[in-house]
User: What shape does this take?
Amino acid sequence: MYKYICILALTIFAVFASCRKPPKFSDDTALKVEFSTDTVTFDTVFTTIGSSTRQLMIYNNNDENLKISSIRLESGNQSQFSINVDGQSGYKFSDMEIYAKDSIYVFVRVTVNPNDLNTPFFVEDRIIFETNQNEQIVTLTAYGQNANYIIADQEIQGFPKFKIIADSLQEVHWTAEKPYVIYGYALINSYGTLVIEPGTQIHFHKGSGLWAFSEGQLRVEGTPENPVVFQGDRLEDFYADEPGQWDRIWLMEAREGHGHSINNAIIKNGFIGIQAQCFQKANRAFLKIHNTIIDNHTGIGIYTNLYNLYATNFVVSNCGNYAVALTGGGQYIFEQGTIANYWNNSTRTTPSLFFGNAYQNPFDGALYYYDFNFEMNNCIMYGNQEDEFNTEFFPGPDTTYIFNNSILRTKRNNDINYNECLFNINPKFVNKEFDYHLDTLSPAIGIGNPKYSTGLLQYDLDGVDRGNKPDAGAYQYVPIAEE
Assistant: This one.
């Protein structure tokens, strides 16, 4: 009996369903659809690599249902753009229904084919919509950019995937002719050298980096007019200040006479700006950083482990962890630098500046303690925490640090380690989030010692002459005309 009741119920439902009228779609030529924009624009896109997705909305703001008889890319299957309409991918669609006061999503991507141009070039197509004999058009535009692609093809257990770009006894030059796009790690092998020339643009995919293996050498040779830039590979405006887009520049120990050097560079939007560490043997040379900005990293700006570092005319700013962490011992000289950590993308619990003398062996995990010697001259070290300086020193090794003619935010202000410094006084930057030039009333003006601003340091990060009254920090204050 139950079986017959079910059959009867289904039969009745089918009869009623068959009686429902199908939706009616107007063929009135006066009715059109509307769009969220008349032009879908992509920023510069690297060739052969798909862009991010852009969204286009189709609106039926009429009181009647409409049927879009045709949606198609003008260039058809030869287009460098691709579209997805209401969940379907293709280059041509028919009879897309859109009910009154409803909308449809269209998603657009572009993959630009390479050509012989070294400068950005223009790519264009159109989406053509036909509704009730009305033709409507949305324009698609993008700039393409050819690039040198470096894609990791080797892997050793315990290390990230890599591609050797400068092998042993080989000197390779990267030029500004075309940008470099790196997937994985670009590796400088032992006794190999990579020279990066002025104006070169280097873009890293997520999780990628540049790696100088033990006794390899990195030489970044930008100029003030044409710095070398290290950044992520997403070029849309949204990513211009987005941290954490790539991994790090990783420098292992250098051999004597072949130390790493980074001059006139911008290193931004990664996880760690520079990681310099002793790995297999003793480090025999200084890493020299000059006229360089290291900004907006989710982890650390400069991280060292048993290394030698000489940094001048530098800015390290806005890092989610330490701005500068010098660990495992080593020798360090910082002159005319600005460390400014006003990170606000998450909660930061670490100070801007950290010192330590404990070195952990990467092979067996054993701890060793080494001499630590640090000197900071004519610098600013400030941030949004009450104390931006901390140390962790173990007894035994020789440990010294001294700050001269600097502005510091710290409660550790004993007389032994400081000479003519100002403590916990706002340095008054032009903008503490992104512009570390000095404001008119900055207490950093004129407090520097001229003996630390000679030679290359006669001129600040902008090329301004410091004269015989240098300011603390990377930038010399320049009075405006009215003053």
Summary: The CA atoms of residues 5 and 348 lie 68 Å apart. The longest strand covers residues 300-319.
